[in-house]
Amino acid sequence: MDSRHVTRERLAELLDRFGRCRVAILGDMMLDRYVWGGVSRISPEAPVPVVEVTRETVRFGGAANVAENVASLGASATVVGVVGRDDHARVLTSLLTERGVDISKVLEVDGRPTTTKTRIIAHSQQVVRADREDTRPLSADVASRLVELAAQAIDSVDVLVISDYGKGVVSEQTLGAVLEQARGAGKLVCVDPKESHFGSYRGVTAITPNLKEAAGAVGFRIAGDEDLLRAGWELRKRLDAECVIITRGEEGMSLFMKDGEHAHLPTVAREVFDVTGAGDTVIGVLAVALAAGATMVEAAAVANHAAGVVIREVGTASVTTDEIAGSFEDAEEE
């Protein structure tokens, strides 16, 4: 048990509250497709491998993955976003509904494809990825409708998550309106950011850039601990956030808080197979934990353990409260 941050009793108390937490997720919804197979020959048409397909799977990406992570914890998840009027949208929304995610605030938009990433994998190695997307900003009409839907969702939840993948749903205009609504309603706001929008994230509860995003935002390379501290405190001051959490992959995460406190949480992962979607898990679990009454450090510690669970799997994944509890128990035994 990571008793430095969360005792066994406190963890049980927080996890027990997760089922009563309500989260809205605004952002770029994506479908991740995986085509699995093997390679035994090179194509006679071009010097590329021929993948003999054996199976196909689909998973959630972006805001959809955050929503699924929230729902897997037993919390209420409402996703606010857009999809195209296509087969991929039908697959994505159907799967979300099966997972218990509220999709009533999702807009179908003509002429805009559902963001889909198709990965072809042979012998556990990714051969190629094909993306189907339109990253242009939403039209003024669609953006206005989305803001209205977000306002409706904000009224009925404890915390708002912004999942910004730079696919056009999150813009300065939508952010400004939605964050104003959330602040006016006294809601917690957690952001998984895109560096191009950092100027619009002011005043949020928590923001979780990775090292690359943090470096891009502050304009200098983060090469060591001194750079990390400088970047973290500069971002915290610039954004006037309650907490900036810089996620550092295999190095864990570092917290820079409004009260001047700093904390570093080392990674708890013993094996790393795929970090895809780990940021979605971190922001989703962090939001639910904060809604459950956790302190920022407690919420980050729980999210850190959750991330350690999902990166053991290939592709995006979600985590349950039992798996989080098991991760803490494993850490206590080591």
Descriptive notes:
It is a single chain. This protein is of the alpha/beta class. It is 38% helix and 28% strand. The protein has helices at 8-17, 63-72, 87-98, 140-155, 172-184, 211-218, 225-239, 278-291, 296-310, 321-333, and strands spanning 22-27, 29-42, 49-62, 76-84, 102-109, 116-122, 125-132, 159-163, 188-192, 206-207, 243-247, 253-257, 262-265. The protein has a nine-stranded mixed beta sheet with strand order 5-4-1-8-9-10-11-12-13, sandwiched between helices. It has a four-stranded mixed beta sheet with strand order 3-2-6-7. The longest helix is centred in the middle third of the chain and has 16 residues, at 140-155.
* Rg over C-alpha atoms, rounded to the nearest angstrom: 20 Å
Shape: globular
**Would you state the CATH class?**
Alpha Beta
The parts where pLDDT drops under 50 for at least 5 residues are: none
Mean pLDDT comes to 91
Corresponding CATH architecture: 3-Layer(aba) Sandwich
Number of helices: 10
Q: Report the β-strand fraction as a percent range.
A: 25-35%
Task: Assign the CATH superfamily.
Answer: Ribokinase
- Assembly state: single chain
Compute the number of structural domains: 1
- Separation of the first and last Cα atoms: 9 Å
**Strand arrangement across the biggest beta sheet:** 5-4-1-8-9-10-11-12-13
Number of extended strands? 13
Element-by-element helix/strand order? HEEEHEHEEEHEHEEHHEEEHHH
Alpha-beta content class: alpha/beta
